[in-house]
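Internal ticket #5521
Category: modeling
Description: The requester needs a full-assembly model to guide mutagenesis choices. All entity lines are attached below as received. Residue total reported by intake: 265.
Assigned to: D.W.
Attached entities:
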Amino acid sequence: MSYVNYIEKTHQYYFRIGHGSAYRYAHNEDGPFTALKKPVAESRLTMISSAGFEIIPSDGPEPTPFKGINIGEKDQVEVFPIASGTPKEKLKYMTGAHNRAESDMADIDAFFPITRLRELHAEGVIGGLAGNYLRIRPSYSTTKTLKLDAPEVLRRCREEQVDVALLVPV
Amino acid sequence: MSLAARYLEANGIPTVLLCSARDITASAFPPRALFVNYPLGNTAGKPFDVENQREILMAALRLLADAREPGRIVDTPHRWSDDESWMERVYDENH
């Protein structure tokens, strides 16, 4: 199977637009593992997304655009809840980062499958859904992710008594 | 996102990650990942293709239950298009 070499392509891209040093992607040779404690059909699931979308208010102005990727290292937690019962029509993708010919981002379920998860829960495939899913603002800083955002994600998962997590980068 | 998955997993919460950038994901070594070979922005399936989105989620849930060791990346068989020419356009000057 052939697939896009994003690491090489991003290095070339940043070089082309004048960034001298290549971004260093996270690299690990091993990692943690936790087996399921009970079947998925009995587990409470949360979804975590890095997509830049906002909730459209029922009245008032349109939401302000998502700020995109956090380039610098900031001491600010950027984890935002989104009710799992939110109708997809209330969600709007707000950044242009992936507005390419192949991805117009018009269908929220293609990158934040909020409707599909409700269906699978209704069918009994998934035992339960967290009251709130989570959105993380993408960051170039692994330190920020690990010291600030990830602990907040864990705290919220525990608060919601989540058993398993589905992560969907955009 | 792989780093957040690793953090949750290290703290006792099993995770599965959908991904469309296989090399970036493999480098980070998340606990479980399902590779969907689509342009970025469609990690959970083709837009407005309910059946395709379902298949991807079901595959992710199977991986969540079946994996026995960390770092497993399962490749889905789905193709974005017959000729796969979209891959050539990634980070193209015009995109």
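Resolution: model delivered.
Comment from assignee: Chain B has a mean pLDDT of 93.
Ticket closed.
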